[in-house]
Amino acid sequence: MIYVEASRGCPYECEFCLSSLEVPVRQAPLDEFLAAMESLLARGVRQFKFVDRTFNLNIKTSRAILLFFLERYEPGVFLHFEMIPDRLPEALRELIARFPIGALQFEVGIQTFNEEVAELISRRQDNARVEENLRWLCDETGVHVHADLIVGLPGESTESFARGFDRLVGLGPQEIQVGMLKRLRGTPIVRHDEEWGMVYSPAAPYEILQTRLINYATMQRLRRFARYWDLVANSGNFVESAPLIWREGLPFESFLRFSDWLFAAGGRTNGIALKRLAELLFEYLTREAGCEERRAAEAIWNDYRRGGRSDRPEFLRPWLPEIERSNPIPTSSRPASAALPRQSRHAAADVTGKDA
Ligand code: SF4
Question: Among 16, 18, 20, which residue has the most ligand 1 atoms within 8 Å of its CB, making it the best to mutate?
């Protein structure tokens, strides 16, 4: 993976972000930039991570870069861009839609759907347009969408975060990164410390410990929620079985219950082997969440095989003969072209879903 940069700085002023201090935006000369990309491609580079904070700021330049890679596309090419979510005009959409599944990854910063919180931290965002664009990306393109939300912003309660999280899950991005607010040196977010009772860790990376609306214990629960969401939902290892956790309830509330249970059952948030995690998920779904055993077993087994594994976990064996008789291995009529393992697992599921 090669990190490249076509522009530096951001014209927006989100108060928690270091890039907000870097104005004006400076653009690399386009012809020279594309010549450098040509040279990297010739030398065999296939995975490019653009670190531009807002790739879709200058539509003419974004178009030129996308078109450049589209014309040179071959399987294995993977491009990552950071995007602002409410700016996706037809001129960009038309190119984005032409890339194959898994070739593009967009990191889309939502941070909060709460308009009062957004105003407090000087973040300008048109939520209706964000929703429309995300829905289009998730439903109509092969883009792998990684959307960011932040826990602990001034004015954000657990309830308002939950509403934003559920809204985002409903739009269908492959990954939702739940990040804890950090107090980065020099950012104006500190102006809210007193009014909103903001307490940050004194040690790097200076993460939020509590606010006036979210106490320390709840913040710890949310931190574990973020970690488990990453392990279970974002990892792509449980694309079919994870949604069973919230099949009868709201995603945030249901997953928080699972997260609390998982922590009580295992007492750790990292270093859980995949097979053990699958077993814990099965146990939770069937014993705590009222999911029918055969249904949970089938979803977990499909996920397990989709990841390319062929061993037969002990806890699934009672259901496997029947499941295999009625359900052949989930494969796709089109190969998923994502270049990285995590993205490939999501892409394989997306392809299977879209073909169906
Ligand atoms: S959060 Fe994103 S949009 Fe806001 S200042 Fe930082 S880079 Fe710019």
Answer: 20
User: Is 109's C-beta closer than 6 angstroms to any atom of ligand 1?
Assistant: yes
Q: What three-state secondary structure class fits 200?
A: strand
Chunked into runs of 10 residues, the chain (356 residues) has average pLDDT values of: 94 91 89 98 97 93 97 96 93 96 96 97 95 96 97 98 98 97 94 97 96 98 97 96 95 98 85 91 96 95 88 90 75 51 78 45
Residue 84 C-alpha to ligand 1 middle, in angstroms? 8
Q: Are 116 and 125 in contact (CB under 8 A)?
A: no
pTM of whole model > 0.85? yes
Q: Nearest to residue 133, comparing CAs of 81, 176, 171? A: 171
What is the tens place of the pLDDT at every residue in 314-332? 999 998 888 888 876 554 4
Whole-angstrom CA distances from 12 to 20, 60, 121, 184, 188 are: 6, 19, 11, 16, 13
Q: Is 118 in the pocket of ligand 1 (CB under 6 A)?
A: no
CA distance 15 to 149: 15
Please answer whether residues 242 and 285 qualify as being in contact, where contact means their C-beta atoms are separated by less than 8 angstroms. Answer: no
Instruction: Count CB atoms within 10 A of the CB of residue 208.
Output: 24
If you count them, how many residues does the chain have? 356
Helices (H), the chain: 30-42, 59-71, 90-96, 115-120, 127-140, 158-171, 216-229, 251-266, 274-283, 293-306, 320-326, 341-355
Rounded Cα–Cα distance for residues 253 and 148 (Å): 19
Whether 10 is in the pocket of ligand 1, judged by its Cβ within 6 Å, is yes
Question: What are 197-239's pLDDT values in tens digits?
Answer: 999 999 999 999 999 999 999 999 999 999 999 999 999 999 9
Q: What distance in angstroms lies between residue 110's CA and the mean position of ligand 1's atoms?
A: 10
Check if 53 has its Cβ closer than 6 Å to any atom of ligand 1.
Answer: yes
